[in-house]
Amino acid sequence: MIDVRWVWAFLDTVEADADRSWEFWSTVTRAALAPARGPRDEFSTLVPATGDAWVKLQKVLDGGGVHLDLDVDVPLAEAAEEAARLGAAEVHRADDVVVMRSPAGFTFCLTSWTNAGSAAAQVRDGEPDLLDQVCLDVPADGYAREVDFWESLTGWPKRPGSLPEFVSLTRPDGIPVRLLFQRLGEASGAARGHVDFACRDRGASREVHVAAGAGVVSEHDFWTVMRDPVGRVYCLTHRQP
């Protein structure tokens, strides 16, 4: 287990689509875009009006998708060794980040906790909706091992979801992002991910997202599948922020 102090949800977007994507996500999260940074201006952060940020944006050369950054307050080499012991594979190491791949192939990064001596705070009260969940979509053959890996890595206990194909990890107080796992109908392949919003009024949130440029893919009892202006699929879920 590693002591995860903060979780960042990263939205990875191919460079050609990044400006349009970043503007959309800034609008629907009601968060300001921080000045771009990095050698290619490839990184930004969604900065909420109050509280600390937990969503970052990245331009990538190809692919795109979602990944997680886990802030830890132990040496990154120590955290990476523990993740590898539990079944992850190391992909790349630099001074300030270790890129890992989970047993089912989901990319995540280990990064250093920088709020030494203080706690970060996410403001949830009063929000009509909140991007607060990353769902790992896992083919059936790797599903059980993937859930066990994340439970062992974080120490957060798993609990059954609203339907048999879902399991979540209990989000500790002070952690901004909940982890959900969906068992896919496909038998094998690499895990992938999408983000979810918790919505007080799912219909009202849907209207806001459509006005910002998203499309409705499908409606379900507990969630609405959406597609953003550049094709990223995400969900609006019936949960309290």
From TrEMBL:
Q: Which Gene3D superfamilies match?
A: 2,3-Dihydroxybiphenyl 1,2-Dioxygenase, domain 1
**Can you say what this protein is called?**
Glyoxalase-like domain-containing protein
* Alphabetical list of InterPro entries matching this protein: Glyas_Bleomycin-R_OHBP_Dase, Glyoxalase_6
Where is each Glyoxalase-like domain found? 10-111, 133-237
Q: Where is the signal peptide?
A: none
